[in-house]
Specification:
Layout: H1 2-28, H2 32-45, H3 52-67, H4 71-75, H5 83-97, H6 107-122, H7 124-239, H8 244-255, H9 257-263
Helix pairs in contact: 1-2, 2-3, 3-6, 5-6
Length: 267
C-alpha cells in the first residue's frame, strides 16, 4: 500500500512538472490564459512544486499589462492606494518575480512592469494626475449608472413599502384575532359567573324554603292542637249539656285563638 502511494505521488509530481513546462510553452506563444491554466493545474497536482506560485504571479502581471495599462492592476492593489501600500506591494512582488528568484520566461518582463509601476506611482505629481483621471472616470460611470440606480432604488423602495404594508395588515389581523379571542374568553367567564350565580340563588331559595317549612311546623302543630281541643269540646257539648262556665269557655275558644294558645300551649 505504501509503495502504491509513493508511486501515485511520483506520478502526480511528474504530471505537475509537465503541466508547468506546458505553461511556459503557452507563455512563449503569448497564450497567457492557457499558461495560467496549466500552471494552476501543476499546483493542484503538486502543491509543493518549486516556484509554481511565482510562475502564476508573473503570468498574471503580463495579463494585467496586456489587458489595460493600469499600474494599480499590475500591482494588484486598489486604485488610488497610498504610496506606503504601493511600496509594500512592490517589495512582495519583487521577491516573487525577480529573475534571480523566478525561473520563468515571464519573470524578467514581469519584474520590469512592477518596477515601472513603482517608479510611476512614486512620483507625487504624476500619481495625483493619474488618480484624478480615475476619479473622473468613476464619477462619469456613476452618472451613467444613476438612472438605473435610481430606478432600482425606487423599485426597492416600493418593494419595501409593500412589505411594510403586508406586515402592518398581518399585525392588524393578528390584533383583531387576539381581541376576538379575548372577548370570547370574557364572554365565557361571564357565562360561568352567571351559571354560578344561578346555582347559588337556587341553593339559597331551597334553603329559605326549608327554613320556612321548619318555621311553619310549630304553628301548624299549635293549630292542630287547638282544633283538636275545639273538637273535643264540641263532642262533649253534644253528649252533655254545657254549664254556663263551659259555655263561656267554649265561646272564648271559638272566638279567641290567641287565648287558647296562651292558655293551652302546645309543648
Amino acid at each position: 500500500m505504501a509503495s502504491t502511494m509513493s508511486k501515485n505521488k511520483k506520478t502526480h509530481k511528474a504530471a505537475a512538472v509537465k503541466a508547468l513546462t506546458d505553461a511556459e510553452a503557452y507563455f512563449k506563444l503569448q497564450k497567457l490564459d492557457s499558461a495560467i491554466k496549466e500552471a494552476t493545474q501543476a499546483k493542484n497536482l503538486d502543491p509543493n512544486l518549486p516556484n509554481v506560485d511565482n510562475f502564476i504571479t508573473a503570468y498574471k502581471i503580463h495579463i494585467a499589462m496586456s489587458f489595460k495599462k493600469n499600474w494599480y492592476v499590475v500591482l494588484d492593489i486598489p486604485e488610488c492606494s497610498h504610496l506606503s501600500i504601493i511600496k509594500k506591494r512592490f517589495r512582495a512582488l519583487a521577491l516573487m518575480v525577480h529573475p534571480d528568484k523566478n525561473l520563468s520566461a515571464a519573470a524578467e518582463d514581469a519584474f520590469k512592469h512592477v518596477k515601472d509601476a513603482l517608479d510611476f506611482l512614486s512620483d507625487p505629481v504624476r500619481k495625483e494626475d493619474y488618480d484624478k483621471s480615475f476619479m473622473s472616470k468613476n464619477k462619469a460611470f456613476a452618472a451613467a449608472k444613476m438612472p438605473e440606480t435610481t430606478a432600482a432604488a425606487r423599485k426597492a423602495a416600493e418593494a419595501a413599502a409593500a412589505a411594510r404594508a403586508r406586515k402592518a395588515a398581518m399585525e392588524a389581523f393578528a390584533a383583531k384575532v387576539a381581541a376576538e379571542r379575548k372577548a370570547a374568553a370574557r364572554a365565557a367567564a361571564l357565562e360561568a359567573e352567571l351559571a354560578a350565580a344561578k346555582r347559588k340563588l337556587a341553593a339559597e331559595t331551597a334553603a329559605a324554603s326549608r327554613k320556612a317549612a321548619e318555621d311553619a311546623a310549630p304553628a301548624a302543630a299549635k293549630e292542630a292542637a287547638a282544633a283538636a281541643a275545639r273538637s273535643a269540646i264540641n263532642a262533649r257539648k253534644l253528649r252533655e249539656p254545657m254549664s254556663e262556665l263551659e259555655y263561656g269557655i267554649y265561646l272564648i275558644m271559638k272566638y279567641s285563638q290567641n287565648y287558647m294558645e296562651r292558655r293551652f300551649p302546645v309543648r
